[in-house]
């Protein structure tokens, strides 16, 4: 269950989202002999504005589901209101990043700032030893005593990417009871334990976007920050203005649909967003091959243990993306990634998570992209 070692059972806070994974994780923590208290995070200052129904993860319905699961398991249960901090550290960050022309991942930021910083700090202050969650990842104690995080046995459900922001101290006080179990078996186990969430659908998309329309949500929230006259959509090859838009926040690098250009390229092939320049409001579009990059410059690294210096391993650039072979060079807060095969549609603001085999080494935020042969559209525009 955990790499934590020590005498006797642990006092554990089980973060219960209201879904099947966190409920089974809490039950397993109890079964392992730990003294467990369930908590649900109230993250919305106005619950009606966040996702509702079975697809949410922080709604009133989810809080009720979590409470019922805690009752079945037989553990105390509390709701912790972290809505103000969530809004400041996750929602505002999400808006600021899009306003700056970058593409953030709010789930990583939530894990970093809320679940494994705010929750863990409060738990330790209250005398607890660890926080258990339903994430699919594995913890192992290395020979030198450090805690390593590895991919889950079920690679299809592996969530180590969104946990790549955790440092050694956070890992040492974490439990991931589901890391060695396929998701199908977790659902079966939930039903056998009498947990009503056994068949509850997994949560998807961004929890604070109520209808799943990210672009519409950003338009509503950021419209007042955008230039009154929007900006141009420009062809990468010719510089021709192909259309106008209301705000750069409605676009992300690699986007194909919703460009509203009105006509295809002369060769009939689709166009993709290659670059977003929020100051001028210019969105540059072009062919798919222009999305290829094999060089990344990253900042704000967070290492699960010691910084690697030089590593030949793999990187993952999206939550459900493939691993790409890479050479990673670290110099202080600057991380240079040489991809040994090209990646497509990679945007500044995304996170590169570094792996050595199945072990998560750490992560860094992509600041610039390019190619060994020449500059990327982002570099050319800037």
Structural summary, described in words:
The protein is an alpha/beta fold. It has 8 helices and 17 strands. The protein folds into 3 domains: 11-199, Rossmann fold, CATH 3.40.50.620; 226-286, SH3 type barrels (Roll), CATH 2.30.30; 290-381, Elongation Factor Tu (Ef-tu), domain 3 (Beta Barrel). The protein has helices at residues 20-31, 60-73, 83-99, 106-125, 168-172, 183-192, 214-222, 377-381; strands spanning 11-15, 35-42, 77-81, 130-132, 137-141, 147-151, 174-175, 231-235, 241-245, 272-277, 282-286, 292-303, 310-316, 323-331, 334-344, 351-356, 359-370. The strands form 4 sheets. Strands 12-15-14-13-16-17 form a 6-stranded antiparallel barrel. Strands 3-2-1-4-7 form a 5-stranded parallel beta sheet, with helices on both faces. A 4-stranded mixed beta sheet has the order 9-8-11-10. The protein is globular and about 70 Å long. Residues 51-56 have low confidence and may be disordered.
CATH class of the largest domain: Alpha Beta
**Average pLDDT taken over every residue:** 89
The CATH architecture name of the largest domain reads: 3-Layer(aba) Sandwich
Residues in β-strands, percent:
25-35%
Oligomer: single chain
Which spans of ≥5 residues are poorly predicted at pLDDT below 50? 51-56
- Separation of the first and last Cα atoms: 48 Å
Element-level helix/strand string: EHEHEHHEEEHEHHEEEEEEEEEEH
Helix percent band = 10-25%
Tally of distinct domains: 3
Structure class: alpha/beta
Radius of gyration from CA coordinates: 22 Å
| Biggest pleated-sheet summary | 6 strands, antiparallel, barrel
Strand runs, count? 17
CATH names the topology of the largest domain as Rossmann fold
Q: How are the strands of the largest sheet arranged? A: 12-15-14-13-16-17
Question: What's the helix count?
Answer: 8
Overall geometry: globular
Enzyme class: transferase
Function: Catalyzes the 2-thiolation of uridine at the wobble position (U34) of tRNA, leading to the formation of s(2)U34.
Family: Belongs to the MnmA/TRMU family.
InterPro entries: MnmA-like, MnmA-like_C, MnmA-like_central
């Amino acid at each position: 269950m955990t790499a934590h070692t020590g005498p006797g059972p642990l006092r554990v806070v089980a973060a219960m989202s209201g879904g099947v994974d966190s409920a089974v994780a809490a039950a397993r923590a109890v079964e392992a002999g730990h003294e467990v208290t369930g908590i649900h995070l109230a993250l919305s200052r106005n619950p009606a504005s966040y996702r509702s129904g079975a697809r949410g993860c922080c709604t009133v319905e989810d809080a009720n589901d979590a409470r019922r699961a805690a009752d079945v398991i037989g553990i105390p249960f509390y709701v912790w209101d972290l809505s103000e901090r969530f809004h400041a550290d996750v929602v505002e960050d999400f808006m600021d990043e899009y306003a700056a022309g970058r593409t953030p991942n709010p789930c990583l930021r939530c894990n970093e700032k809320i679940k494994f910083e705010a929750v863990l700090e409060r738990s330790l202050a209250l005398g607890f030893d660890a926080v258990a969650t339903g994430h699919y990842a594995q913890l192992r104690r290395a020979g030198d005593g450090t805690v390593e995080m590895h991919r889950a046995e079920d690679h299809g459900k592996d969530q180590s990417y969104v946990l790549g922001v955790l440092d050694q101290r956070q890992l040492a006080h974490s439990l991931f009871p589901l890391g060695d179990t396929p998701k199908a078996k977790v659902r079966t186990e939930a039903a056998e334990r009498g947990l009503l969430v056994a068949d509850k659908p997994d949560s998807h998309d961004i929890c604070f976007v109520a209808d799943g329309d990210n672009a519409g949500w950003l338009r509503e929230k950021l419209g007042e920050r955008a230039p009154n006259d929007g900006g141009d959509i420009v062809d990468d090859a010719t510089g021709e203005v192909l259309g106008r838009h209301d705000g750069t926040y409605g676009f992300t690098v690699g986007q194909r649909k919703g460009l509203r250009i009105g006509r295809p390229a002369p060769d009939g092939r689709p166009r993709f967003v290659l670059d977003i320049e929020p100051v001028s409001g210019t969105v540059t579009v072009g062919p798919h091959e222009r999305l290829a990059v094999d060089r990344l410059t990253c900042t704000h690294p967070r290492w699960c243990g010691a910084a690697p210096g030089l590593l030949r391993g793999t990187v993952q650039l999206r939550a459900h993306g493939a691993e790409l072979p890479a050479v990673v060079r670290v110099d202080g807060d600057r991380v240079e990634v040489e991809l040994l095969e090209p990646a497509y549609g990679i945007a500044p603001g995304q996170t590169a998570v570094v792996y050595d085999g199945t072990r998560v080494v750490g992560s860094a935020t992509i600041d610039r992209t390019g190619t060994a042969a020449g500059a990327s559209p982002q570099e050319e525009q800037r």
